[in-house]
Design a protein that fits this description.
Layout (H helix, E strand, L loop, with lengths): L17 H22 L4 H22 L6 H11 L12 H15 L7 H11 L4 E2 L2 E2 L11 E4 L6 E5 L6 H13 L6 H15 L6 H17 L8 H7 L1 H12 L6 H34 L7 H11 L8 H8 L3 H13 L3 E3 L9 E3 L5
Antiparallel strand pairs: 1-2, 3-4, 5-6
């Protein structure tokens, strides 16, 4: 009995309910066009800042899905350098962080280039520069030679959720995948992004890193769908928010009959939610752009600039002197001077609490 789709003959002849999928796709395309139009009306600094924020978020969240937490400031600094933006005041980055960012940006910044075996191997090497995944040595920059099972549960009571394509068939299956991905398939690029994600994950060609590379492949095809290297929404952030549904829907597709309607609709809905979040955040982009235009001739130091941007972007919790000092890596006395200066300039206002519990927020503005 065949348990997995890859055990079926011609398993990549995926099918779906066109009426159902087209309805979801239409909603995504409408929202995508609306947001891209609005984004292009922004001034260059606002566009660059939004692009930087989203790319940083995409890198961080793609790794958080796998349970790995990266340093946000290092990722942002590395992304900014690769985009050719002003990096004054940004933190130093590690070789590991730079490799990760290089891989993720290679997918979206060079979205027109073919996806090749050599390119995939380069991405994989960037993810595992030391040849280890945690404490385990893995095969890097080459396809796996061992069988793969996705399991859960204690030793001796494991539950097998999925068995990937046999190791001996990986090369053949990947050649077929790359030929399809680079070919002129008559299908909307957004649907192609969703199918590519499922197809690649089902093959599971590497010892580790398959999920992160699958999401990079999806982002690459989404960039093609917009004919733009600029990113203004993060699909990975939405996948993280719906992580259990993501894995469950993928697993049902991999263990199903080859009808991938449910997976396509899930992917499209996740993408629509990501686009909605961007739409909601545009108000803050406009407010931030208006703020920096108003204060363009006012002296604001780099620590203050960092914290003002953080506040516009949705600072978690209350801003206190100690948080300011920790984030900007300065003393509490310096933090208090920075804050007092911004209060005198009409940028910050003190909250209701006093003493050591004092908190601060931006003076409310209208777009």
């Amino acid at each position: 009995m065949r348990k997995y789709i890859h055990q079926r003959e011609n398993w990549t002849d995926f099918k779906w309910q066109d009426t159902v999928v087209s309805a979801s796709l239409g909603k995504v395309r409408l929202l995508q066009g609306k947001i891209i139009g609005q984004i292009h009306s922004f001034g260059l600094p606002s566009k660059e800042e939004k692009n930087l924020d989203i790319l940083t978020s995409d890198v961080l969240n793609s790794f958080r899905i796998e349970g790995e937490k990266l340093d946000r400031d290092q990722v942002r600094s590395s992304v900014a350098r690769r985009l050719g933006m002003d990096t004054a005041g940004l933190v130093q980055t590690s070789r590991y962080t730079d490799g990760i960012v290089e891989m993720m940006l290679n997918a979206t910044q060079n979205y027109r280039d073919p996806l090749t075996e050599e390119r995939l191997f380069g991405w994989h090497a960037s993810l595992f520069p030391e040849g280890y995944s945690g404490m385990s040595k893995i095969a890097v920059a080459r396809y796996r030679t061992e069988e793969v099972k996705i399991v859960s549960g204690a030793i001796g009571k494991e539950k097998v959720h999925y068995e990937a394509v046999a190791a001996k068939d990986v090369k053949k299956e990947m050649d077929r995948f790359l030929s399809w991905f680079n070919g002129d398939v008559i299908i909307d690029d957004i649907l192609k992004s969703a199918i590519a994600h499922l197809w690649f994950i089902t093959i599971h060609p590497f010892d580790d890193g398959n999920g992160r590379i699958a999401r990079a492949i999806s982002d690459m095809m989404l960039a093609r769908s917009e004919n733009s290297a600029e990113r203004f929404y993060s699909l990975s952030k939405q996948i993280l928010a719906e992580r259990s549904g993501y894995y469950e829907t993928l697993n049902r597709a991999q263990c199903g009959s080859g009808d991938i309607t449910e997976w396509l609709v899930w992917f499209l809905n996740a993408l629509r939610h990501a686009l909605r979040e961007t739409e909601d955040s545009m108000r803050n982009v406009l407010l931030k752009a208006a703020f920096w235009e108003e204060y363009k001739d006012i002296r604001i130091n780099e620590r203050q600039r960092i914290m003002i941007n953080r506040l516009f972007d949705g600072f978690l919790g209350k801003l206190t002197t100690s948080k300011w000092a920790r984030i900007t890596k300065c003393s509490t006395d310096t933090a208090l001077r920075d804050i007092t200066d911004l209060m005198e300039k009409g940028i910050l206002i003190k909250g209701e609490a006093g003493g050591r519990s004092a908190d601060y927020k931006l003076v409310q503005r209208t777009a």
